[in-house]
């Protein structure tokens, strides 16, 4: 997009331009030695773009460079969008955070909870309390992901066809019914576990609103915000970045994952299915840092955004204390979890220059964003390298951004 460029002198926004250039130098080294195919970063403060850096290729083999309008599979950066959708319905009085989800999804009327045993012969007990809407938003419902490989229930998910995707031919309604038939990892509300909870939340949005998830997103969020390049299929396949995985310290192309963004999926995954661009997602994060509004369009009230960006874990503990030590898109130390985002509780424990109250999330292909309300700052990072745990790109980017903030 021609207008997606630096539009303020960094010094006017409190940044040292020379220090911001360290972002480019740092990630260009990843490209130079082959660890990343390409990358794009955007830093914005007070609603003005202070830095847009990019390097490398969106498609190494075709020698196609990263452009500002490159499309990226954002995977779990879909989750905050689904969470916003659910909270929009809550603001309309159509659901409450304490509502049992079985009110709309009767397949969850009598969940069973894993007690002991193997994946082939699990022993279960009835759930002591219902799964509620806030459990889905906070990943405390007891659901899981098959790719965790850390618990017998994870193996049960894999045996049912849920690992890095969903079984062919099953739509979101069918997947939700199947997840409801599988054991929960723990009693609802007892722990935090990264999971398909946001996918179930997406199904809840469909049932409550009466719209397919893609239609709700398109009409209620993307069109109002001017997010013209975001959807479950790449709006322009020639702009879609190829996908890569690490092998012997280099990024190697993986078309099996890369093709996911080129066709409409059977299951509209509110947990990980969207393709977007840096300009589009920047508009979404700017709406959040502005308290739910952007360009005279209001999606949420400031109080709702503040609630979403608060730590909802019991006693304001962090994920290290309440979560399971498994793969997630962000670190656990010093971070709590809100309604769809990680929330930074303790910068010292997290060993970061970020502000307390920062809320954030990322995607499996190493994309990431954060919103810092104290500094009126939003940051986005885009690349296509699976998995996101390959390198410590996110803490490195935070260090580079905040060392350049000098006011």
From TrEMBL:
Top-level taxon of the source organism: Bacteria
SUPFAM superfamilies: beta-lactamase/transpeptidase-like
Keywords assigned: Hydrolase
Entry's EC annotation: 3.-.-.-
Beta-lactamase-related domain mapped to chain residues: 23-399
UniProt enzyme class: hydrolase
Molecular function GO labels: hydrolase activity
Matching InterPro entries: Beta-lactam-related, Beta-lactam/transpept-like, Diverse_Enzym_Activities
Entry-linked PANTHER family: BETA-LACTAMASE FAMILY PROTEIN (AFU_ORTHOLOGUE AFUA_5G07500), BETA-LACTAMASE-RELATED
Record protein name field: Serine hydrolase domain-containing protein
Organism annotation: Amycolatopsis plumensis
């Amino acid at each position: 997009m021609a207008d997606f460029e630096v539009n303020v002198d960094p010094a006017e926004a409190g940044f040292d331009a020379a220090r911001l250039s360290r972002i480019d130098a740092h990630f260009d080294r990843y490209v130079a030695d082959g660890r990343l195919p390409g990358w794009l970063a955007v830093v914005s403060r007070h609603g003005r773009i202070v830095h847009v850096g990019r390097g490398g290729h969106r498609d190494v083999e075709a020698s196609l460079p990263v452009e500002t309008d490159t499309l990226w599979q954002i995977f779990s950066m879909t989750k905050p969008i689904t969470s916003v959708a659910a909270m929009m319905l809550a603001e309309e009085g159509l659901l409450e955070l304490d509502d049992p989800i079985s009110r709309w999804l009767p397949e969850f009327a009598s969940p069973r909870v894993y007690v002991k045993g193997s994946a082939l012969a699990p022993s279960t007990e009835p759930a002591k309390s219902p799964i509620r809407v806030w459990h889905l938003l906070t990943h405390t419902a007891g659901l899981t992901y098959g790719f965790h490989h850390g618990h017998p229930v994870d193996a049960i998910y894999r045996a049912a066809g849920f690992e890095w995707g969903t079984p062919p031919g099953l739509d979101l309604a069918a997947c939700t019914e199947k997840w409801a038939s599988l054991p929960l990892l723990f009693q609802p509300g007892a722990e935090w576990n990264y999971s398909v909870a946001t996918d179930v939340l997406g199904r809840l949005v469909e049932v409550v609103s009466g719209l397919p998830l893609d239609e709700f997103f398109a009409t209620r969020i993307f069109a109002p915000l001017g997010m013209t390049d975001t959807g479950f299929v790449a709006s322009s396949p020639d702009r879609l970045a190829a996908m890569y995985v690490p092998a012997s310290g280099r990024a190697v192309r993986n078309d099996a994952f890369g093709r996911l963004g080129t066709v409409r999926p059977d299951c509209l995954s509110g947990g990980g299915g969207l393709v977007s661009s840096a300009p589009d997602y920047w508009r979404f994060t700017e709406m959040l840092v502005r308290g739910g509004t952007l360009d005279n369009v209001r999606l949420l009230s400031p109080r709702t955004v503040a609630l979403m960006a608060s730590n909802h874990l019991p006693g304001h503990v962090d994920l290290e204390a309440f979560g399971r030590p498994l793969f997630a898109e962000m670190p656990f130390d010093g971070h709590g979890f809100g309604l769809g985002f990680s929330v930074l509780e303790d910068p010292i424990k997290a060993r970061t220059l970020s502000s307390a109250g920062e809320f954030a999330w990322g995607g499996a292909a190493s994309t990431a964003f954060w919103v810092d309300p104290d500094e009126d700052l939003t940051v986005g990072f885009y690349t296509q390298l699976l998995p996101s745990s390959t390198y410590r790109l996110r803490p490195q980017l935070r260090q580079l951004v905040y060392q350049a903030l000098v006011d």
